[in-house]
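A further point concerns the way the authors explain their paired sequence and structure data. The central task, working out the structure tokens from the amino acid sequence alone, is never made concrete. I therefore recommend that a typical entry be quoted early in the introduction. An entry of this sort, consisting of the sequence and the corresponding backbone structure tokens, reads as follows:
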Amino acid sequence: MAEQRRDAGDGRGFGETGASRPGEALERAWDDLVATARRTVSDGLVVGTSGNVSVRVGDTVLVTPTGVPYDRLTPEDVCGVSLDGRRVLGSLVPTSELPMHLAVYRSTDARAVVHTHAVHATAVSTLVTELPLVHYMSAALGGPVRVAPYAAYGTEKLAENMLRALRDRTACLLRNHGTLAHGATLDQAYDRTAQLEWMCRVWLTASSVPGLTPTLLTEDQVAEAGERLRGYGQP
């Protein structure tokens, strides 16, 4: 997973994007992507070069390259592909998990995807087929968070399993692997990732108390919370 190499591509940067017009939007999106990727490390959601981040700008998907530490990424390291996986920006090889990212963009209206190997979420993925409803913030992810069956990383099978787990959801767990969340923005996708990891930690913590069983919410209670969350925040 840590293959650190450059492919013999055309080396195009922001100024030449094939069918797409060059623009500041791609530059800003790459800067935001790099900042988000670095945040996954600083917040302890990934170790080394594990995990990956992408953002869609028009029909171009900017994505972290494989095997490159996020603190070394520069504007010259931009990595962009089309929705069919053809490289249209840069010369670095995209993340090995590109099939998952592209599957999300082809199947939803998402504009950003964050994949991590967060400790508590990964631990939960080995124990259950669905994260128990330990907190109403499950509603922010569309309901009970499912666990996608295991498949080897970087495979189409993993992407297929993930899509089934994501049905009517904005995040899922990947068995013995980690998390995936999407959103309309990088901030939203990251926030959903962090919320999922926090809920997994809460459930593991509550479940570890000898002789006691965590009280869980009903799906109706979570649905009610979801309605209230629709009006949360500033107008």
Summary: The beta strands are 52-57, 60-63, 80-82, 87-89, 112-116, 147-148, 171-174, 178-183. The helical segments are 24-42, 98-107, 119-125, 156-165, 186-207, 219-229.
